[in-house]
Design goal:
Length: 321
C-alpha cells in the first residue's frame, strides 16, 4: 500500500498522490466517458490512491456524483476532499453547498472541505472571510466536515483565513514547470504544518511528454489557453526541458509523468493531485509513489525545470481565459 501522510495537523491520513476529478465533471474537457472515469477512480483506489479530490463546480455536482458511484461502497477506505465555489461564500450558502455536496457524495461527512477560490474571483460577490469561516467552523463542529482547506489563495489570504480557524491544506497550481508556490506559500506552510495539495502537477499534461512541438488542441479544450502551451517561446523551452528529463526517467525506469510526480511529492509538504481518464493512467499515477529519486536526480530535475520557470512572469494564473 501507499505510505500515507498526515493532512496538516489533523488525524486524517492522505496519500501523497490524490485522484483529481475535474475532468469527471466533463465541462471544459473533451472525450470523457462516465463509465471510464468510474473504472479509473476504482483502479486508482485499488492501486493505493485512496484520497479523492473533487468540487461542487466540476460539472455542477456531476464529478461528485461520479465519485460516489465509484467508491461509496467502500466509503470507509477513502478520503473525500471537495470544495465550495467562490459564488457560495455567504454563511447560508456555504451550509447549503456543503449539504448538496454531502448528497452528491452519498456520505454524511466530508474529510476535507475547501474554499475553491477566494471570494471576489470569477466576478463573485465579495464576502468577508470571517463569515465564510464561521460557516465552515460550524460544519466542522457538527461533524459534517473533518478538516478545512483553501485553494488558489495567496499567502496573505491564507494568513487571513487562518485567523478564524485551523486551515490544514492549500491547493495551488504547482509542478516542475509552474513553481510560484515555492516562493511565498511553501515557507509559510512548512512553518505552520499546512499540507500543499498541488494541482496540475503535470502542467496539464505537458510533463507527460505526449504533446510534440506541433501539437494542436481539439476545439473546446481549455488547455489551448494555457500560457505554457500557447506562448511560443514558453512551449519551445518546455520541449527543450523535456528532452533533458527523458534520460533521467529512463535511468529510473519510469515515465516522464511518473518522474515529475515523484519529484513533486519529494518537495516540502507537497502532495500531487493527478487526474486520470482511464484505468491505465490511474495505475501509472499510483506507481509514481513507489520509487525514490536520489538527491542528485532531484537536484538535476530541479535545475532542468528552471529552464521553463525562470523566464515566466509573476502572474499566478496559468491560463489566459
Amino acid at each position: 500500500m501507499m505510505q500515507t501522510r498526515s493532512l496538516g495537523t489533523s488525524d486524517i491520513q492522505i496519500t501523497p498522490i490524490l485522484m483529481g476529478t475535474w475532468q469527471a465533471g466533463k465541462r471544459m474537457w473533451v472525450g470523457i466517458e462516465d463509465a471510464e472515469t468510474v473504472k479509473a477512480i476504482r483502479a486508482g483506489v485499488k492501486a493505493g490512491i485512496t484520497t479523492i479530490d473533487t468540487a461542487e463546480v466540476y460539472g455542477e455536482g456531476h464529478s461528485e456524483r461520479i465519485v460516489a458511484e465509484a467508491v461509496s461502497d467502500i466509503r470507509d477506505q477513502v478520503v473525500y476532499a471537495t470544495k465550495v465555489f467562490a459564488n457560495h461564500m455567504k454563511y447560508d450558502q456555504v451550509i447549503e453547498a456543503c449539504h448538496r455536496s454531502l448528497n452528491n457524495l452519498k456520505t454524511d461527512y466530508i474529510d476535507l472541505y475547501q474554499i475553491h477560490w477566494p471570494s471576489g474571483t470569477w466576478n463573485s460577490e465579495v464576502v468577508p472571510i470571517e463569515e465564510t469561516m464561521a460557516a465552515l467552523n460550524e460544519l466542522k463542529q457538527q461533524g459534517k466536515v473533518r478538516a478545512l482547506g483553501v485553494s488558489n489563495f495567496s499567502r496573505s489570504q491564507l494568513e487571513a483565513a487562518s485567523q478564524y480557524g485551523r486551515i490544514e491544506s492549500i491547493q495551488p497550481p504547482y509542478s516542475l514547470f509552474w513553481r510560484m508556490a515555492e516562493q511565498e506559500l511553501m515557507p509559510y506552510c512548512v512553518e505552520h504544518n499546512i499540507s500543499i495539495l498541488a494541482y496540475s502537477p503535470l502542467a496539464q499534461g505537458l510533463l507527460t511528454g505526449k504533446f510534440g512541438p506541433d501539437h494542436q488542441f481539439a476545439e473546446g479544450d481549455h488547455r489551448s489557453k494555457n500560457k505554457l502551451f500557447h506562448i511560443k517561446e514558453n512551449y519551445e523551452r518546455v520541449q527543450n526541458a523535456l528532452d533533458k528529463l527523458r534520460p533521467i526517467a529512463e535511468r529510473n525506469h519510469c515515465t516522464l509523468a511518473q518522474l515529475a510526480i515523484a519529484w513533486l511529492i519529494a518537495q516540502p509538504q507537497a502532495h500531487a493531485i493527478v487526474g486520470a481518464r482511464n484505468v491505465e493512467q490511474a495505475v501509472q499515477n499510483a506507481e509514481a509513489a513507489q520509487g525514490t529519486l536520489s538527491a542528485a536526480d532531484l537536484s538535476e530535475i530541479d535545475t532542468i525545470g528552471r529552464i521553463v520557470t525562470d523566464p515566466l512572469d509573476d502572474s499566478p494564473v496559468m491560463w489566459d481565459f
